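quick one before i forget lol
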Amino acid sequence: MRPLLGEEEALAAAEAVRSGWVAQGPRVASFEEAFSARVGARHGVAASSCTTALHLAVHLLDIGPGDEVVVPSLSFIATANAVRYCGATPVFADVDATTGNLTAETVQPVITDRTRAVLVVHQAGVPADVEALRALCGPLGIPVVEDAACAAGSTYRGAPVGTGALMAAWSFHPRKLITTGEGGMLTTDDPEWSARARRLREHGMSVSAADRHSGGGAIVEEYLETAFNYRMTDIQAAVGIVQLSRLDAIVERRRELAARYHAMLADVPGLRVVRDPEWGTTNYQSFWVWLPDELPLSRNEVLTELAARGVSARRGIMASHLEPAYRDHPAAELPVTEAFTARTLVLPLFHDMTGVEQEAVVEALSSTLAGALVTRRG
């Protein structure tokens, strides 16, 4: 992945610097308004990262020690960590082998009387079937929160992912389609959650620093609760506003490149690739492939061979429950998750990728797989 950054972003950042207002201020407010409108939410609360936005979401639900939150293990570790930050216990559920996402069928078996929320991830930009999860969880009084870190520009049932979400958290890390360097956003339709999240990200202040400085006179803030410093800067937001204007073009280009991958890899025996689910479209934030089951090479051996051929691929989605940080966590039966993380890898995909570069990737992968399978059969 390479972020698509240009002169417009550089000029926007420079203008913010020249303005003298570089902390959270008017540009952050403008970015919040534009981004929330783009994803179909009434309110957006910018944060320092998607991780901190996730933490805010769990905190807003008043989840704490003794509570459980169902999460996928097949996700970046921040998903589970956000639950631990609140003193609660992440409970790992397995995922669908086609989408890599939680489903109602994988979540239902791990729900207990201590389940306080389900945190569903739109993994690698592939939209999860959130309506099915809401149908399961709603009658039980269990809120569904969306980790949409990778999903800007993806759609679900004809609308942008995030439309109608109770709360959704987004990432603007450089590996995502649009970036602010680091940064995130929490979106919601609930005005009370939005207002409280704004306070929580800024030490619990009753009046934001921006409003205090622009209000005139002597405005003395109060600190209403123990909170956090999760602010985004105006420099970041200035870049984000420009990036957001590019989102449609970025998604269109990535889907075009993905379609070429689909066509060129269609005849590789046993190889499965990421695709749109029946209920929506993916932005192809990552183009993952599932290696043939009969392949004698491990995922890491394939990555090593691709690197030797000049192709920089990377491992597929991690399984958090297999990481040292969760070694003391209760064991979970997650066969699909473990197979997914062991047998998938992510191919290069970026806006300025040329046809020649894409053909080189396909040739390297095809040759590696064919050579290994011939050796095995021989």
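fyi The mean pLDDT is 96.
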